[in-house]
Amino acid sequence: MATQTTERYTSFAEFYPYYLQEHSNATCRRLHYVGSLLVLSILAYAIVSQQWLWLLAMPLAGYGFAWVGHFIFEKNRPATFQYPLYSLMGDWVMLKDAFTGRIKF
């Protein structure tokens, strides 16, 4: 496993390059995208069906796919453990960047 950074980030703009570095493996990134899109699908289903218990599946879907990507393919520790809010933001910005072509899918 890769070593964790001891640097403390004071803004998301400072953190995001580190986040992308920790997601250099394409399979890891794709698993993040699957998890994020599943989260949106579960949210939409829960709202439309009004079956609110489905909301409990959102963290499992999102983090489950992402953590498989990190532990098996990226071989590092998810940044979520050290930077939970910035990492959550990073997931959505990375998905947006993939859809807009800013980063390789």
Structural summary, described in words:
The chain has 105 residues and is mostly helical. The protein has one domain (26-100). The chain has four helices and no strands. It has helices spanning 12-21, 26-49, 57-74, 84-100. Helix 2 (26-49) packs antiparallel against helix 3 (57-74) and helix 2 (26-49) packs across helix 4. The longest helix has 24 residues, at 26-49. The chain is globular.
Uncertain runs: none
Tell me the total number of β-strands. Answer: 0
Number of DSSP helical runs: 4
Shape: globular
Structural class, by secondary structure, is mainly alpha
In quaternary terms, these chains amount to: single chain
Query: For the terminal residues, how far apart are their CA atoms?
Result: 24 Å
Helix/strand order: HHHH
Provide a compact summary of the structure.
The chain is an all-alpha fold. Helix content is 66%, strand content 0%. It has one domain.
Question: What secondary-structure arrangement, pairings included, does this model have?
Answer:
Elements: H1 12-21, H2 26-49, H3 57-74, H4 84-100
Features:
single chain
